[in-house]
Design a protein that fits this description.
The protein is of the alpha+beta class. It has four helices and seven strands.
């Protein structure tokens, strides 16, 4: 079984007034806190004009040893981020905290045409960056790229196939 590390985190989300005639407000993830919180999900942190900040809740940032290539690329980007995934729900306030991710490829895999998930990058806090660096140092293995070779078709095998006509099918 490959090594996995679970880091408890809390997420701060803002509800902002929208300038669009089709949408009343926008949900924008703004921060990941490197620890669980005692605050209940959707506790108001502050109100400033048309912006209300909430503790959206807690999640576990799951680090998997086989994903270290993506984590390494994130760390080497110069501005490491975490991706917060919010999912629409019929219950108030209308979205729920779904996941927090450290690998861009994993976040991108959740994006699909017509999907309503909100997936936004937020700055990676220092303590999480340090833990991620240590995890990558302990588990990352460079893998060489091996190009597959195609088997060349045998001209004799192709010639031996029965001829297909319009009447056959």
């Amino acid at each position: 079984m490959e090594p996995v590390l679970h880091l408890p985190v809390s997420v701060v989300v803002e509800k902002r007034a929208s300038q669009s005639p089709w949408v009343d407000h926008l949900w924008v993830p703004v921060a990941v806190l490197p620890a669980p919180t005692v605050a209940a999900p959707w506790t108001v942190l502050r109100r400033e004009g048309d912006i209300t900040a909430y503790i959206a809740g807690q999640a576990e940032l799951e680090l998997v040893a086989s994903d270290t290539l993506g984590y390494k690329a994130n760390l080497e980007s110069g501005r490491p981020v975490l991706w917060v995934v919010l999912r629409p729900t019929l219950e108030e306030p209308g979205v729920e905290l779904h996941r927090v991710l450290a690998d861009a490829a994993e976040a991108e895999s959740l994006v699909s045409v017509g999907a309503a998930d909100i997936i936004e990058p937020v700055p990676m806090p220092g303590p999480i960056r340090e833990t991620l660096e240590a995890f990558v140092a302990a588990h990352h293995r460079e893998r060489s790229f091996v190009k597959r070779k195609r088997n060349r078709a045998s001209p004799e095998a192709l010639a031996a196939r029965p001829k297909v006509t319009d009447e056959d099918g």
